[in-house]
Every structure is written in C-alpha cells, then in structure tokens.
C-alpha cells in the first residue's frame, strides 16, 4: 500500500509541475514588454516599457524565471504582485478559505441530494427514474452563470431571502456567512447533483444486476438490507471517483460564480489578475487549485485502494 501511495503521489507531483509550467509559458507567451505595458500609462514609450519589464524580471529566459519561482515556492514564497507589490502568499491566503468553503458547501449539497436521489432512482424506478433523466438533460444544458443570475435575482432581489451579492466571514457571523454562501453553492451544486445522481443510478443498476445480489435476494433478505449493506458497499469505489471529478468541476465553476456574487475568493482574483497581467498572482492561484485537485485525487486513489485491493496493482 505504501508503494501504491508513493506512486500516486509521484503522479501528482508530475501533474503539478506540468500544469504550472504550461500556465507560466502561456501567460508569458506575449513577452515581457507586453506584460509590463499593463502597469504603465497608455502613452508610455518603448524604452519605459522595456525598463519596467527588466525591473520585473520579465526579460530573463522563461525557464530561468520558472525555476526561480519553484525555488521561491520551496522556501515558502510565491513572489510579489506586479500590480500592488504585496506578497502573493498574503493576498491569496485571505481568499483561499472563501473558495474552499464554497466548494465544500457545494459538495455537501451534491452528496446529500445527489447520492440518495441516484440510489432511489435505481431501486424504485418509475416516475422518479424518468424524472431524473429529464432533470439531468435540462440542468446540464443550462449554463452555470445563467443559473447563478436567476438565483441571485429571484432569492436575492425579488424575495430578499438572502443577500444577492457580498460576503460575510464565518468568524464575524456564522448566519451571515451562510446566507452569503448558500446561493453561490446552490448555483454550482445543482448541475453536479443531476450528474452525480445519474452516474450513481447507473452504477447501482449494474451492481444490483450482479449474480451475488440475486443470490442474496433469493435467501429472503430484505431489499433495504441488500441496498445498504451490499450494493452500496460495492458501488462505493465508482461513487468516490464520480465525486472526486465533481470537486474539480465545482472548483472550476467557482471562478465564474464568485464574480457574479462578488465573493472575494480565488476565482474572482484570478480573473482580475489575468486581465491586469499580474503573472505572480495568476500562477499562485493556479498553484492552489492544482494542489486541491492533486490532494482530492490522491485521497480518492487511497480510499479506492483500501476498498478494492485490485486497484493497488495498477
């Protein structure tokens, strides 16, 4: 098991280096002068632009810049923002809890609603099953930003049940925090609920058709006991994989939703930094998101390894 975990951890390191290096290369593809121009007046001369690019360290070879960034990272630094000259680590540290809490709340909603809905659709069938299939098609066809806007208008502006925009830290007011997070979390989670429910429905149908389930059923064991004690246990590995993929999807959805609901998270600042050409902030944001994805995938692989020993020999 230790060898298996180390192998998966090594794969995560490769993913981290690949994604951050590609992001660095793409962001700097325009050249140092083009990035430096974002921080100068429109009428700045070419000499001023070139001098600013040099002062920001953008004229050195790209691989040298990236290796220096990795070196700073190993020493616990992400550099300084080109725009505000503040520590990138300090800027992002205040925003990471917002994004993580949004993703965690969305994941809880997805699990609490999506998993039982998928199990019920597989075991009960009928109207519930057909309704789930229709819901999956409809929700997947609706853009996430459109759904977020509808929720903000209906529940925030028309009904005034919760604030339409803004953010209240959990340390200031738990109820205020919940009221500002519930709509963004629902906006991200609704699509995930339909997808997870549909995937779990298919997984449960496959498990329930296995020979050992028919054998257990022939012994007179109740359907409830079969589902809870046998079918769910064997369907757990595919369920974990589906949920881990949804964490990645929820993290991506947070980028747009945070902008719509004015949440001070990683998603909103990554968009702003990208528009301003603030490379250190963009790369720091990507780093945090890649780490979350790698940790989630590693945890999923380890849990699957415990649940299914055959996975460890891959």
TrEMBL record:
Record's subcellular location: Cell membrane
Pfam families assigned to the protein according to its UniProt record, in alphabetical order: BPD_transp_1, BPD_transp_1_N
Primary location recorded for the protein, binned into one broad class: membrane
Membrane topology: Multi-pass membrane protein
Keyword Membrane: yes
Regions that span the bilayer: 9-27, 98-122, 134-157, 177-198, 239-261, 281-307
Keywords: Cell membrane, Membrane, Transmembrane, Transmembrane helix, Transport
Domain spans labelled ABC transmembrane type-1: 96-304
InterPro entries the record matches: BPD_transp_1_N, MetI-like, MetI-like_sf
CDD domains registered for this protein in UniProt: TM_PBP2
Alphabetical list of Gene3D superfamilies matching this protein: MetI-like (1.10.3720.10)
PANTHER family xref list: DIPEPTIDE TRANSPORT SYSTEM PERMEASE PROTEIN DPPB-RELATED, PEPTIDE ABC TRANSPORTER PERMEASE PROTEIN
Family as reported in the entry's similarity comment: Belongs to the binding-protein-dependent transport system permease family.
Protein name: ABC transporter permease
Organism from which the protein derives: Frondihabitans sucicola
